Every structure is written in structure tokens, then in C-alpha cells.
Amino acid sequence: MQNAANLPAAAIAARFERYDVAIVGGGLAGLYAIHRLRKQGLRVRAFEAGSGVGGTWFWNRYPGARCDVESLQYSYSFSDELQQEWSWPERYPTQPEILKYIEHVAERFDLVRDVQLDTRVLSAEFDNATAMWTLKTDRGHVVTAPYCIMATGNLSTPRLPDIPGVQSFQGDWYHSGLWPHEGVDFTGRRVGVIGTGSSGIQMIPIIAQQAAHLFVFQRTANFSMPAHNGPMDAQQEREFKSNYPKLREAARNSPAGIVDYPPPEKSAMEVSAEERERTYEERWRHGTIVGMLSAYKDLLVNKDANDTAAEFIRKKIRGIVRDPKVAELLCPTDHPLASKRPCLDSHYFETYNRDNVTLVDVRSDPIAAITPRGVRTGKAEYALATLVFATGFDAMTGAMHEIDIRAKDGPTLAERWAQGPQTYLGIMVAGLPNLFMVTGPGSPSVYAQMIMGIEYHIDWIADCLGHARSHGHTRIEAELDAEQAWGEHVQQVAAGTLIPRANSWYVGANIPGKPRVFMLYVGGFDRYKRRCDRVAADGYVGLRMTG
Ligand code: N01
């Protein structure tokens, strides 16, 4: 972890600044927070480590990076003019398109002037006596504000695996989440990709087209289905735009924050095998993750039902991949569908039919070391010129743990969360007054459409601040009982599903030593929203407002 003590003296010449709200992060959440809170008359400032706005979409520039929620839905809803005027060229948006959109929003609503770029927040400390947060940055800012919002993202701390010798590799290496702005030319090179999560599955088909040879090091096969991406359908765009407010409202009141098929009424087990096949085939052709997962009402809660959909996808993989041995390796068999984030791809499985692509099964023959020449497993060494880590992130808690967050003389947030994150509604933490999180652990977060979750949380926080101020309160704190009860509820809901069963980043399993705790609320965005709306309507029960 960085701290002020190891910075050069010149860098820490203090610059004192005071705001009503200090925001950490200049991505989709930080930008909307500036906009929303300014409208409430608050003086705000966001601090962003990157040299541009955009958060996730600023950093993740790997080839093929694209959102797996449709463009017309993965966008802000707060301005009707914006959603009417913006045109998305494709059904699913690419990273450059999304970044262009975010930059447009930042300019259009004059948000950029309140983002301090190239500036990493190192610490945030709450003083109980003054009810003020003080944030310190790596560029010497000492920022005081009564309120602090962590808009730090859920997948913003890239992680290199603990494989011996990573630093010894003499070729070029990259992490999907820290991709160079100038891009990477793989032409004629022997390339290795470690990891077959969403990032790996998106980049592999593109790298394969350029590389002399691509070696994919797969530890766990993943469920993926085709996106059927293409140019934006003009008719669909017109229909969406003429119904936007209604569709956004419907999305906010749906389990995934996405409008797609109507909610399922049938169990997968109550229909014939032929009917199931027809339904899955239709969903496969439709090309949305939420469409497949909502084919039947019990896919996420009943293993037998889940198996029927999982087997359908495995059959598809066997139908696409010509070499039966490779096809079998690509078939996920060790976790239920959706217990790891399912993926949406463009020609992913087809890529393994290319002569210049080799799938290396590092489940049966694990990577022993990265050597100066390449990757060595127990049985072979693969010489590589370029190595790509698509190995994921310290998800949900990583970015906040990198900041020394505490109330004066109290434990740090990382210490509070040593046994796993505890939050009230995924928004506040007992013992850390006036600190808010956007899409924090214990909220639906990445299990629902992220921009919707972000807008909902920031609106909720803004209303909460408004309520406190109008009642003359300066201090808002989650009650410990309310936090514990919410934490238990989150765990209970998850335990009633199949989702926590895999070794996924949802449970922190990808980070050695991270406590295994399921970190998302998976009861549905609609249910979550109803709960948070009620908390607010009842005068913010579970929060103590004083001062
Ligand atoms: O990361 P991941 P990601 N040896 O953690 C493997 C979002 N996202 O960057 O499964 C060998 O999912 C690891 O193997 P295993 C989305 O929410 C969205 O791909 O642990 N392999 C796994 O295959 C997503 O879920 C979009 O056995 C090792 C991979 O690395 C989240 O970001 C696009 C290893 C990591 O997969 C993270 O996705 C991209 C080792 N030592 C991302 N260590 C879209 O919207 C790790 N692995 C489409």
C-alpha cells in the first residue's frame, strides 16, 4: 500500500481544500455524484488516479473490451436529452465507444472542472470532534469535507497471480485492467493469455487473429454464449427512445436492472425436455445473459434445473469446437451456471478451431512458474514473446482497502473487514459516519446493471444528505444492529441460491488469504430497491442522525 511517508517531499507540499462532499473516483459513479450533488447546492470535488475520467472504461482497453449489457440499457438515465441524443453504433458497446460517451457526459454537464485527475487518495480519516473527513492524496492535497463518497468501483484493483517468477519474464507482459493506451501489436508473435473470465474470453478471438500462435492457459472453463453483436437496429433504437422513461422504470423494477424477457413463471423441471430445448435455443439466439438465466424461474436455485441449462450450453460448445478433446476441456463442469459470472462472446469457442491456437489445461497441469522465456507447467515450457494476464481483480473491497480509511484512533476499514465486508445496504459502514459507498459490498452491485445501481445509490445518498441537513443533523451513521441484520440477510439470500458455490471473485476466492464471504446481494435489484426506498420513507431506519 502507498502512504504519504514514502512520497518525495516535493510531492507532499500540502494544499488545503474544503468541500461539502469529497468523492473518491472519477468513473461513472464519481461523475454522476458530482452532477447530482451539485444540483443540491453542494460543493463537491472528485479525486481520480487516472489521467482521464471513465474508471473501469478508462483502464480496461484490452482488445475486444466491450460491455455485455446492451448499449441502449448500459447508459445513464438521468437526462432524457442525453439518452435521446446519444447514438450507439452497435448493439453492444465497445470500450472506446463507452469512454467516448463518458467523456461526452463529463463535458456536457461541465463535470470535468470538479475532477482532480492523476491524483490518488491515500487516506481518509473522520474526526469525531469536528464531524469532518480529511483526505490526503499523493499530490499533497489535504481535503476536508463533512461527507465522503467512495466511488471506487468494484473491479478496479487488477491482480497478478502469485505465480513464481512473474517479474523475471523477458518478453512483454500486460494485465487486462492496465492496458497501454497506445495498444499492443501481437502480429507475428507467440502470445500467452492466462485467464478465461470475461476479459480473457473477449480478447482471445482478437489476439488469435493477429498472433503467430496463441496459447490459452485455462484453469477453469467458463460458461459463455454468443452476443450476436452487430450494428444498432434502427427500429429497436426508435422503439427504445420513444419509450425510454417507461423502460428505465421497468428496468429499475426488475431483478437485474435490465428489461428483456418477462419474468419466468415456469420451473425448468415442469416442462418437457423438448420445450426446454426450444426455450434455451431461442435464448441462445437472442444473445443476452439475462435472457438465458431467466429462461426458467428456478435456474439459480435448483441444481437439477441449472444442470439442464448448463448441459444445453455444453452441447453447444461440443457442436462448435471440432476437436472433441478441446471441446471437453472448454465445457464447464465444476460449477453451476451463473455461480461464476457467465460471459457473452464473439466467436470465442470458434477460435479454438484455428490452427494457431492451443488450449493449455492448467487445471490438470498447473503453471509452475513464469520463466524468462515464457510459462512453465509441470510437464512443458511454452516459449512466449508476449504474456497477457486476464487474471482479474481484487473485487468489491480491493480499491477501498488500498486507502487508509478510518475514524480517528479507530481501526482501518481493512481491519474492520478482516473477516469480510460488513455494510448496511452496501452503502454505509457502522463506525464510519458520513462515509458512503456506491455499489458497495452487500448491494446488488455487479449482479445488476451497474449504471442503474450507481444512479440509484447516488440518488439515495443525495436524498439522505438532504434529509439530514433539513433536520439540522451533521452526522449520519449506520447502526451496528442494522448492519449485522443486513449482513445476515445478504448471506441468507445467497445461501438460498447456487451462486456462492463456485470459487469465484464473488466470494473472494481468487485472492489468497481473502476471507470467503459472499459479497453481493442477489435477491434482485427490484427487491433491494424496495427495501432501500422503504428505509428512506421511514426516516432512514438503521441510520443514526445526530449533531
Ligand atoms: O477476471 P476473472 P476478468 N493460473 O476473475 C484465471 C467484469 N468484466 O477480468 O477461474 C491460472 O473473472 C481464473 O481462473 P479460475 C465481470 O464482472 C465484465 O475476466 O480462478 N489461471 C479466471 O479464468 C467479470 O466477472 C466485462 O480458475 C488463473 C481468470 O484468470 C469481472 O469483470 C468484461 C490464475 C480471471 O477471471 C472480472 O473478469 C470484462 C492462475 N494462477 C470484465 N489466476 C464485460 O462487461 C487467475 N486465473 C463483458
Oligomer: single chain
Largest sheet: 5 strands, mixed
The amount of beta strand, in percent, is 15-25%
Q: What bound compounds does this protein have? A: 3-acetylpyridine adenine dinucleotide
Q: What is the correct CATH architecture of the largest domain?
A: 3-Layer(bba) Sandwich
Per CATH, what is the topology of the largest domain?
FAD/NAD(P)-binding domain
**Overall tally of domains:** 2
Radius of gyration: 23 Å
CATH superfamily of the largest domain: FAD/NAD(P)-binding domain
> What's the pLDDT, averaged over the residues?
96
> Order of strands across the widest beta sheet?
1-7-6-5-19
How many helical elements? 16
Q: What coarse outline follows from CA principal-axis ratios? A: globular
Report, as a whole number of angstroms, the end-to-end distance.
34 Å
Strand elements, count = 22
> What percent of residues adopt helix (DSSP H or I)?
25-40%
What low-confidence regions span 5 or more consecutive residues with pLDDT below 50? 1-10
The level 1 CATH classification of the largest domain is: Alpha Beta
